[in-house]
Amino acid sequence: MIPPGSRRRRETRRFLSGFLATFIALAGCWGGGLVWFANQIPGEVADPFTPTDAIVVLTGGQGRLEAGLNLLTGEKAERLFVSGVYRGIDVKTLLRMFRQTRTDLEDRVRIGDATNTAGNATETWDWIRQHDIRSIRLVTAGYHMPRSLLEFHHAMSDVTIIPHPVFSDNVKQEQWWAWRGTALLIAGEFTKYLLARARHVGSGLIPTAKGPT
What we know:
Helix content is about 50%, strand content about 15%. It has about 210 residues and is an alpha/beta fold. It has a domain at about 55-170: Rossmann fold.
């Protein structure tokens, strides 16, 4: 007869072994996914020339708004929507901050105040529907582009989206694993990407309530 104490120790070891094996497997999957994700981050603007109906800038990083305004003044689109501007800042103030003096730009720029990427996509879609826009050039940081495209394609599946990444000297995309700050940034972005994808999958599994017929 096996003493109760020995049985409990054996069950505990079995549980810990199973937990450790599961943890290692999940960590391996996450690590492999991280490498895949890092390879999805663009290293250049693949299509800098095709005009679109509008330019959409997601604020929050170096060079994004400057790139969007340069595209607008370069006549790459008729309209510019800036998503994620601090509340209280209007178009005039925004243009003055970036030393844009052309008087015609004010009527071509609109701003939104979303606080996250999913909100960026939602408020952009609301604006797009008002103006019958069929194509956009999406301007955001290179590392932020995969998650932005995920959210935007989910929000507006019928709209053509041309990615226009911008790059910061502080983000070392080549050999990103060797730079602690960049590695943490990309790892965090990959985790957010996974959560966003899980949210979309989950929302697709929940039946939508039907209204009265």
